[in-house]
């Protein structure tokens, strides 16, 4: 089967073709980062305009890369949520138009299910499994007993990990998106600032990053007031050490409790070198559980992951109608 995937939930306009749910035939991402940089974050109205301007060219490039046409496709898969509603609607309506014109099934995909299924483009899934999802808007541990089944066993109660990275980066006057910049600085620094590790109640798989973010901001303000020099590398390393330590600890504990075959890393923050290294080290002591980490290009937003997740829904007969809408707050357990 050939599934054509479309992703426009935030600030990347993306399309891809995936064969049999596991093989990337074409993968095109048009990023808008440059347009949002001067505002320090994604401006929804600008994002929607960019999607409209880019989407046809992105589709054409995807078909060209693959040497295929829409007639060769078995279905159109598109992110229907969560995300910015105006951005989602561009992809959803483009998907409907193509599905109608070529009489193809239409499949609405949950964006985070997509991030998780990016892993299937690397390694066949083995169940039960857990996925640590760390992205710009989400931080959660998701349990999967089988394909297409998602249960959230823990999630952030305030900021997402990526959001905390971006806000800390802003405090240090680094460009948007800040995650990769903090990651790079952290590699050159040491964990010297004694920042908190927020673990919440014993046994909980939930997360909280807003206190840590505030601790970084307070550290910067206090240094400014006292006229002290900050060492940005060390502050970045201290922040990253706290995030990575808590994410690793909870993931390992969950993997043991749920006796899973695999742990999959997913979402933009999965690109983080510190997190990748920490999980690899922790799981090297657990040979019964396989750790899967996608390449950087499949961690951040793309449409290959949407086509991969869409393939499973297609095989399960889970189609959407022409009345499909964009859902900014779509729930992964029931979508
Ligand atoms: P969501 O998937 O929750 O809807 P999103 O699609 O905006 O949100 P992604 O594109 O998955 O999020 O990820 C973007 C986030 O990943 C940003 O917050 C960015 O700073 C972060 N990020 C990217 N690379 C790194 C890195 N190397 N270290 C830490 N964070 C990173
Ligand atoms: Mg993005
Ligand atoms: Fe995302």
UniProtKB/TrEMBL annotation:
GO BP term, example: tRNA threonylcarbamoyladenosine modification
A GO cellular component annotation in the UniProt record: cytoplasm
PROSITE patterns: GLYCOPROTEASE
Reactions this protein catalyses: L-threonylcarbamoyladenylate + adenosine(37) in tRNA = N(6)-L-threonylcarbamoyladenosine(37) in tRNA + AMP + H(+)
GO molecular function annotations of the record: iron ion binding; tRNA N(6)-L-threonylcarbamoyladenine synthase activity
Cofactor(s) needed for function: Fe(2+)
Residues that, per the record, bind Fe cation: 111, 115, 301
Compartments (UniProt record): Cytoplasm
InterPro entries registered for this protein in UniProt: ATPase_NBD, Gcp-like_dom, KAE1/TsaD, Peptidase_M22_CS, TsaD
All residue ranges annotated as the Gcp-like domain in the record: 23-307
Enzyme nomenclature, EC number: 2.3.1.234
Stored CDD domains: ASKHA_NBD_TsaD_bac (cd24133)
Cofactor binding mode and count: Binds 1 Fe(2+) ion per subunit.
Amino-acid positions noted as binding substrate in the UniProt annotation, renumbered to this chain: 133-137, 166, 179, 183, 272
Keyword Acyltransferase set for record: yes
Matches recorded under Gene3D superfamilies: 3.30.420.40
Keyword Transferase assigned: yes
Record keywords: Acyltransferase, Cytoplasm, Iron, Metal-binding, Transferase, tRNA processing
Function summary: Required for the formation of a threonylcarbamoyl group on adenosine at position 37 (t(6)A37) in tRNAs that read codons beginning with adenine. Is involved in the transfer of the threonylcarbamoyl moiety of threonylcarbamoyl-AMP (TC-AMP) to the N6 group of A37, together with TsaE and TsaB. TsaD likely plays a direct catalytic role in this reaction.
Stated family: Belongs to the KAE1 / TsaD family.
NCBIfam families: gcp_kae1 (TIGR00329), T6A_TsaD_YgjD (TIGR03723)
Protein name per the record: tRNA N6-adenosine threonylcarbamoyltransferase
Organism encoding this protein: Domibacillus enclensis
